[in-house]
């Protein structure tokens, strides 16, 4: 997700890889040392995916003589989870609203209230969540239902990562001359190494996501895997159905969603595009032409009325 901020960095060819390496090292340290902390405090046979973190805090605070701090940490964790939920609820609806106004979602889905909130999209999200809540009845425990919904989220995300890594390799060949804020060094070989490792890692994690956890009773493993397969298939098919049935009237004239470079340059996306123009330059020219056309149309309408 941090790749969208590349254009805001000074000298991205140098500073962006450094930032990624530092962030990766910090992330690894946080997770490794946090996991080791739990392993040092709780015996291996007592470690579980649900309660180990809170139990670790409680035992460490008890050892330090401040057991009263454990409930404070629990409340802080709950608030953090709540903040994450709010972000996950509002974030996708804002993104889908921008995409929808570009003509990829029906007009009813594009409605927003006076505060700019995509209320109809939020209603659709609420309906989907309500439908998925049936899993809490099918599976033997709340933990199992939560686990399968979490895995479904991971699987859908990994599908997008697979597409992004594959697209990065493809774009290196289909738009080889396109200037970019940051370009992976090593030419096509470097892109194959970085993109290939990312693709294989995502594919491996995708396959492992279907394995039922051993620490949470999920009932029949076949039912667990079947539910994941069915839900993944449904959520992957829905975008293709909507895209196949899209109509020109879905496009909002005031949409600020930038089209693809091959759409602006009117070059088929299945052939090599030798263009050397920067993406930002193309987008700015596109919206400028759009504004000029709108102004000309308004003047023509005024002339016709006169």
UniProtKB/TrEMBL annotation:
The record ties this protein, via InterPro entries, to: AA/rel_permease1, APC_superfamily
Q: Which residues cross the membrane?
A: 18-42, 72-100, 121-142, 148-171, 192-211, 223-244
Topology in membrane: Multi-pass membrane protein
Q: Which UniProt keywords apply?
A: Cell membrane, Membrane, Transmembrane, Transmembrane helix, Transport
Instruction: Give the Gene3D superfamilies listed for this entry.
Output: Amino acid/polyamine transporter I (1.20.1740.10)
- The yes or no answer to whether the keyword NAD is present is no
Q: Write the signal peptide boundaries.
A: none
Which cell locations does it reside in?
Cell membrane
Matching Pfam families:
AA_permease_2
Q: Name one GO molecular function term.
A: transmembrane transporter activity
- Cellular component, GO annotation: plasma membrane
Q: What is this protein called?
A: Glutamate/gamma-aminobutyrate antiporter
Provenance organism: Actinobacillus delphinicola
């Amino acid at each position: 997700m941090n790749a969208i901020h590349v254009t805001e960095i000074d000298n991205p060819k140098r500073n962006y890889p450094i930032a990624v390496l530092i962030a990766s090292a910090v992330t690894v340290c946080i997770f490794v040392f946090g996991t080791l902390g739990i392993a040092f405090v709780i015996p291996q046979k007592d470690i579980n995916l649900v309660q180990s973190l809170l139990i670790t805090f409680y035992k460490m605070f008890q050892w330090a003589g401040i057991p009263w701090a454990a409930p404070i940490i629990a409340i802080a964790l709950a608030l953090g989870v709540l903040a994450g939920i709010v972000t996950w609820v509002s974030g996708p609806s804002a993104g889908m609203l921008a995409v929808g106004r570009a003509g990829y979602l029906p007009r009813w889905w594009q409605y927003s209230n006076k505060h700019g909130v995509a209320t109809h999209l939020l209603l659709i999200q609420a309906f989907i969540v309500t439908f998925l809540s049936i899993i809490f009845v099918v599976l033997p425990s709340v933990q199992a239902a939560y686990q399968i919904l979490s895995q479904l989220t991971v699987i859908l995300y990994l599908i997008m990562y697979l597409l992004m890594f594959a697209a990065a390799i493809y774009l290196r060949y289909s738009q080889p001359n396109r200037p970019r804020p940051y370009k992976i060094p090593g030419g096509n070989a470097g892109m194959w190494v970085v993109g290939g490792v990312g693709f294989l890692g995502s594919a491996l994690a995708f396959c492992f996501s279907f394995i039922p956890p051993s620490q949470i009773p999920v009932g029949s493993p076949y039912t667990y895997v079947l539910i994941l397969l069915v839900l993944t298939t449904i959520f992957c098919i829905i975008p293709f159905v909507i895209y196949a049935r899209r109509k020109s009237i879905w496009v909002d004239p005031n949409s600020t969603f930038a089209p693809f470079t091959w759409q602006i340059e009117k070059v088929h996306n299945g052939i090599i595009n030798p263009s050397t123009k920067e993406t930002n330059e193309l987008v700015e020219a596109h919206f400028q032409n759009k504004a000029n056309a709108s102004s000309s149309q308004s003047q023509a309408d005024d002339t016709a009325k006169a």
